[in-house]
Write a sequence for this structure.
């Protein structure tokens, strides 16, 4: 039997968040992590297995929405999610309405919410 777990690329500029996310979801999904949008794009370019991207919103250099836009240029059929500790702002609301992102999750994140969104 091959590995049928979905692969998620999680991008966050805080290592502790990457570690926690990986630990929490490692039994359900294959987790790849990146500390920046740049690193995330490199990993996306190297793997054909990534269908789901979850990104922190606020990061230096490239924020989550910029990363999502760049990621979608590399791979059209990505599902993209934003994880943020902040309230929905107008940019995020527009991103949701225009389907730039599929969903926005709040930090601290809810395991079940993310798991069910990814499995859909």
């Amino acid at each position: 039997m091959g590995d049928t777990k979905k692969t998620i690329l999680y991008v966050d500029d805080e290592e502790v968040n990457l570690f926690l996310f990986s630990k929490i979801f490692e039994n359900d999904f294959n987790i790849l992590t990146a500390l920046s949008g740049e690193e995330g794009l490199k990993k996306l370019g190297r793997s054909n297995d990534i269908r789901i991207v979850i990104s922190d919103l606020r990061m230096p250099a490239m924020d989550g929405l910029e990363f999502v836009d760049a990621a979608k240029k590399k791979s059209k059929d990505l599902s993209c999610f934003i994880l943020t500790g902040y309230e929905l702002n107008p940019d995020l609301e527009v991103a949701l309405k225009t389907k730039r992102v599929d969903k926005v999750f709040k930090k601290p994140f809810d395991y079940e919410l993310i798991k069910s969104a990814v499995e859909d």
